[in-house]
Each structure stands twice: as C-alpha cells, then as structure tokens.
UniProtKB/TrEMBL annotation:
Domain of life according to the entry: Eukaryota
InterPro entries: HARBI1-like (IPR045249), HARBI1_dom (IPR027806)
GO cellular component, one term: nucleus
Keyword Lyase part of the UniProt annotation: no
Organism: Spodoptera litura
Protein name (record): Protein ANTAGONIST OF LIKE HETEROCHROMATIN PROTEIN 1-like
C-alpha cells in the first residue's frame, strides 16, 4: 500500500520546523510520521524552491564562477546611495555601503574529510562570509569555504572582492562631506581580521592610540556591529545554528543560504527594524551560536588606503562632525562638546 504524496504545505512545515527548532530528522520522524531519508529529501527540495522563488527579490543570483557558492545581485549606484543614506541615519557613519564579517557554521565531521574543515577552535565548520546593510539584510553571502581559513583569505577569494578591487561593483563616485575640502570614497567596514583597502576600512591597530585613532575605531565599530547583529538575528531566529549540522556539505550550504534569504524576506514583510543597533547588539551577539573567525596579521594597506582611513578619522574629529554626532544623542549643550570623550 503506497502512502499519499506529502503535500507542499506539509513539506514547507517540515522544513521550517527543522530550521526554527533545530530538531533532528529522528525528532521530525515522530512528529510527521515520515522517514528520515524522506525528510532529508524534502528539506533539500524545499531549500532549492525557496531560493529559486526569493533570491532575486531578497538577495541575489548565483555567481557563475565555478567553485564559489556566492550569491548577490549587482546593486545600482542608486541602490548603493540608498544603503549609504541608511547607514548615515542609523550609525552616523557617512559613505558606508555595508559591514563585512564571517562566521563559522558548525558541522559534524564530514565523511572522508581531512583537516581542512577543522578550525582554530578545534571543531569542524564551513565559513559564512557576508556583507550586511543597516537594516540587517544580507547584501551578499558566500558559503562553503573551509573552516581552517581566516576572514581575510576567504574574503579575498570571493568574486565580490575581485569585483571590488577591479571597480566592478557600480560604486558611487567619491564625494565631499560637509566641512571638509577633499573627496572621500564610499567604503565598506570590517574588523581587524581584514586587510585595509581603498574601499574597505578596518580599525587602527595597537594599544596606545591617540584620540583621533580611538575616535575612528569607535565610529567604525558602531557601523560594523550591524553585521554582528545580523548574525545574532540569524542564529536566534533559526535554532538549526545552535547545533552542528549533521547533513552533507552541499545540504548545509543550501540550508545556510536559505536561512539568509528567509531572514531578508521576513524583514521586508514585517518592515523589520531596530531603532538603535547599540541598544540590541550586546544581547544578539552574546546569544549567537555562530563563531567568530580568527584574527590574523592582515596585509598592510596601500598608501592610498591609509590616506583614506586617516581622512575619515580627521573628519570624525572635526568640529562640524562632532556637533552632528553629539546632537544624535539628544544632548545639545555646546558646552559639553569639549568634554565629549570616546
């Protein structure tokens, strides 16, 4: 006697429950009276269908370069300008097009795998690399790099980086901010694991930093925390990330990218927003099960890249910008400007 086909609504329910609860196939077997192999096939098929339906609206299209599971759409200059405007509004960091970071996705040891999946924390993983906007939406994701690799090396192998270095991302032209007499380029922000680039800013290194460098690092951190919050939201919404993935590498990649595109879709449907990232970031980040990639000695940036970072730092400590930043906290007493410390 043959069982009736599993209906689409039940297939979707099984998949979403797997994502949301992190239950095993055995748990789902008892809940839905479906075999473990059937559940695996259902999840695989539903992931592909969700991606097919939503990736153009919410994320992107697959990159054609073989060997890279990268997904993005090419924003227009108008799209980039809108993203930069939102970053300015949310974090008071001008000309910012996105925050960059990577996280480890835990795995059960893959069959016949070597140490390439074994990361610095001594568990098996693949890497999720992402660029996020100020609404915690994924602009770009790259999934599947070996866990032993660091942020900078993974990022430099992505077509996104290659397009960035070859001026292939339709970035807006450099512009002049109020109160300064020089042009600044549009940039992405990242932590110290990434190499400094003309369009990618990282913090100043060292411990004995002057006020200019400390101010810049503080302002960059405020902008960069959006990607940390996005990872925290991803982990908290989809509890599948709270335990090691016990499926094939290919299915793990499908699950990760599907959860990313669903997060974007939900944000768009719910008009999702946090009014202030700094009020929520510590909770989201502390509860995240996604592990930070190691910090390495990134390659020193070029003279042009260092000049860009220095000019942003000088802009942040200018009188005009200090007043704008100070007013954003609601304290409008000019007498406090000189006492304002970062």
């Amino acid at each position: 006697m043959f069982r009736a086909p599993v209906q689409p609504i039940e297939r979707l329910a099984v998949t979403l429950r797997y994502f949301v609860t992190g239950e095993t196939f055995k748990d789902l077997h008892f809940s839905y009276r479906l075999g473990a192999s059937t559940i695996g096939e259902i999840i695989k098929e539903v992931c592909k269908k969700i991606w097919t339906l939503l990736h153009e609206e919410c994320l992107s299209i697959p990159n054609s370069q073989e060997g890279y599971k990268e997904y993005m759409k090419m924003p227009s200059k108008e799209d980039w300008l809108h993203i930069a405007s939102k970053f300015q509004e949310s974090s008071n960091f001008p000309l910012c097009l996105g925050a960059v970071d990577g996280k480890h996705i835990r795995l059960i040891k893959p069959i016949d795998s070597d140490s390439m999946f074994l990361n610095y924390k001594h568990f098996f993983s693949i890497v999720l690399m992402a660029v996020v906007d100020s609404d915690y939406n994924f602009i770009f994701v790259d999934v599947g790099a070996y866990g032993k690799e660091c942020d900078s090396s993974v990022f430099k192998e992505t077509p996104f980086w290659k397009n960035l270095t070859n001026n292939g991302l339709n970035l807006p032209d450099a512009t002049r901010l109020p109160g300064i007499d020089y042009d600044l380029p549009y940039v992405f922000v990242a932590d110290e694991a990434f190499a400094l680039h003309y369009h990618l800013l990282r913090p100043f290194g060292g411990h004995q930093l002057d006020q200019l460098k400390r101010t810049f690092n503080y302002r960059l951190t405020r902008a960069r925390r959006f990607v940390e919050c996005a990872f925290g939201i991803l982990s908290n919404k989809w509890r599948i990330f709270h335990r090691p993935m016990n499926v094939s590498i290919d299915l793990t990649v499908d699950i990760v990218k599907t959860c990313c595109v669903l997060q974007n879709f939900i944000h768009k449907q719910e008009n999702f927003q946090f009014h202030n990232a700094s009020e929520n970031e510590s909770t989201l980040d502390s509860e995240s099960e996604l592990i930070q990639l190691p910090i390495t000695n990134a390659v020193r940036g070029s003279l042009a890249a260092n000049e860009v970072r220095n000019r942003f730092a000088q802009y942040f400590v200018s009188n005009t910008n200090l007043q704008t930043f100070f007013f954003s906290f609601g304290n409008r007493d000019p007498a406090n400007f000189k006492r304002f410390a970062f």
